[in-house]
Amino acid sequence: MPLSLRHFFLLFVTIFGLSSGSDLFSNSFLVRFRRDVDGDEAHSVASRTGFVNMGPVLGSKREYHFVNHAVPAARTKRSIPHVRKLKVDPLVHTAIQQPGFIRVKRGYKPLKVENLVRNIQPHSDPTDPYFPFQWYLKNTGQNGGKAKLDLNVEAAWAQGVTGKNITTAIMDDGVDYMHPDLKYNYNAKASYDFSSNDPFPYPRYTDDWFNSHGTRCAGEVAAARDNGICGVGVAYDSKIAGIRMLDQPYMTDLIEANSMGHEPGLIDIYSASWGPTDDGKTVDGPRNATMRAIVRGVNEGRNGLGNIYVWASGDGGEDDDCNCDGYAASMWTISINSAINDGQNAHYDESCSSTLASTFSNGAKDPNTGVATTDLYGKCTTTHSGTSAAAPEAAGVFALALEANNNLTWRDVQHLTVLTSKRNSLFDAKGRFHWTMNGVGLEFNHLFGFGVLDAGAMVALAKQWKTVPPRFHCEAGSVTQVQKIPSAKKLVMQITTTACQGQSTEVRYLEHVQAVLTVNASRRGDLELFLTSPMGTRSMILSRRQNDDDTRDGFTKWPFMTTHTWGEYPQGTWVLEASFNSQMPQTGFVKEWTLMLHGTKEPPYTELAVLDPHSKLAIVKKAHENRMKM
Fold it and tell me: What are the residues whose beta carbons fall under 8 Å from the beta carbon of 188, sequence distance 6 or more?
């Protein structure tokens, strides 16, 4: 069910001042009118106040995006005179100058001119010359990889599913829509350039090809098959849309919101290979308008079925935690981590309890053996990598699932991901995180989520899928008494809950769980947090981040999320542990903890036939049946 305004504001307060660095202000302004206005009236107000009207925000008739080109694109002080000029207009209710903030592409290393591989002879079916290098599609052990450790896409293709009539939007630095491997799968109607405000999201030229990021991601999803050019996309008959929104000095809330809310009826999947800075000290997430766009997308997009938002989990490595990224850790996005071709995690992979699944990035023995895909100006590359490469692979798999069953909701896609992802040969190279089974028999890993996506299994299950029951949001309890975190011991807090039993928001079968916390610490980076469910599943919801020296901001109503308790029963006692992982004495306080449970009242898989008695579906369905007998 749609999220209420009360829960919206509890879970996602507007986040300002959490990034490192001084505040910056852009030349963009959010203008709210006192009544509904049409485009002509908005243009008239903009003209007489010295602004340019860039159009409505998320289709609103009261909120518009104004730009003043006399104001620098980035400045350290608010432009009070320009705000006043807008506010004195009788039609204007409020005017807010938009802060500027950093959003970075998620790639293994700065992009440079690649060493292109030429004159490759067609080798196999598909006949595309780079297909032999696409080990993530078909791993035969090439380049030191482990045979059969791949996305199992051939099993999906063999079912006649190739992504037809599905559109994935690449929200990035643009897409080379004239590339011969992309142009016939390009959806111009669903595309837009929010960096230049025109319908042509072509990448801006730079000598070092820095703006090749979006084109590479697009090829992973929808590069054409058997045309003698580059490789093949995971969903090679699907469409891609280009949404150019990263290529300006600083991001604003309005650009992000308009990008994520662009054409939600034409776009099925939004793929994002970017986020807050992966420096291990930033805590940041969506601002107000962007969060509204995402919530509207999952509630109203795809004619009410909900848009699918796919997010790269981050490239900060073991020094960062993707639960500090409010995009990747959102329950409305699907956070994707990566593995390399022999099953190890990549050294740049972040870990967190909100990661749902994994795909692939680069090779083990040769780091230059990355993801083979399209590149700028009709070229091809074999060196795309990072979780930037992982997210579009997932988007391609989801495009296959949506073709197999176009009635899937955004939640159905998450359930399918949990039930069909495989452990396969994935392992933590440093032995920190082991595969663990939750209370209903689902295996998960803190690095890889529920495993690597299996396109063949997801398509097969999608074909027989029955939409899961309505979703409810239960505020299961709060602790508002301030409690000190000891320097050398754990602070242990408990909430015992009936999970809203007997109320309209009762939850009996879990999907996402959030611990909404207000915490401060003498050194935020040394803080560790664990959440244990009534069925005994222990999730690390915050790990140590050695680069985070914050002493002031801490976390304010921050929603730490875990997927590890998926399918479990929430009634009982939940335990929160807070402690410091530090050689130096530290102090801190948990000021508030609210437990939010999200899931269904009814069991989700009762109508599904089980073909394999050893499958995840069979195991969870049996656990749920036993629960119903209690």
Answer: 177, 199
Instruction: Let me know whether 499 and 390 are in one domain.
Output: no
What's the pLDDT tens digit per position in 346-368? 999 999 999 999 999 988 777 66
Domain count, the chain: 3
**Structural domain contains residue 620:** no
Contact 107, 205 (CB under 8 A): no
List the catalytic residue out of 19, 259, 388, 543: 388
Scored b (16 or more CB within 10 A) or e, 386-417 reads bbbbbbbbbbbbbbbbbbbbeebbbbbbbbbb
Whether 33 and 175 share a structural domain: no
Return the biggest CA–CA distance within the chain.
70
In the chain, the N- to C-terminal Cα span, in Å, equals 27
Which is catalytic among the residues 65, 82, 213, 598? Answer: 213
| Domain co-membership, 83 together with 143 | no
- Residue 483 in any domain: the answer is yes
Q: Which amino acid is at 60?
A: S
Percent of the chain residues past pLDDT 70, beyond the cut? 93
To the query of whether residue 226 is one of the catalytic residues in this protein, the response is: no
- Let me know how many helices (H) and strands (E) the chain has, helices first: 11, 26
Report helix, strand or coil for 41: helix
Does residue 213 have an active-site annotation? Answer: yes
Q: What are phi and psi of 80, to 5 degrees?
A: -60, -45
What is the bridge-based pairing of β-strands 443-444 and 436-437?
Answer: antiparallel
CATH code, 78: 3.30.70
CATH value at residue 523: 2.60.120.260
**pTM for the whole structure:** 0.88
598 is catalytic: no
Q: Which of 100, 130, 150 represents a domain boundary (last residue)? A: 100
The sign of the CA dihedral 78, 195, 234, 117 is negative
Catalytic residue of the set 150, 172, 526, 550: 172
Residue 181 lies in a domain: yes
Ordered DSSP codes for 321-340:
BGGGBTTTT-TTEEEEEEE-
Residue-range definition of the domain harbouring residue 59: 23-100
CA 613 to mean position of chain CA atoms: 32
Query: For residue 52, how far is the Cα from the chain centroid?
Result: 32
Give the model confidence (pLDDT) of 14-56 as tens digits: 333 343 345 788 889 999 999 999 999 999 999 999 999 999 9
Which range has highest mean pLDDT (111-115, 138-142, 475-479)?
A: 475-479
609 inside domain = no
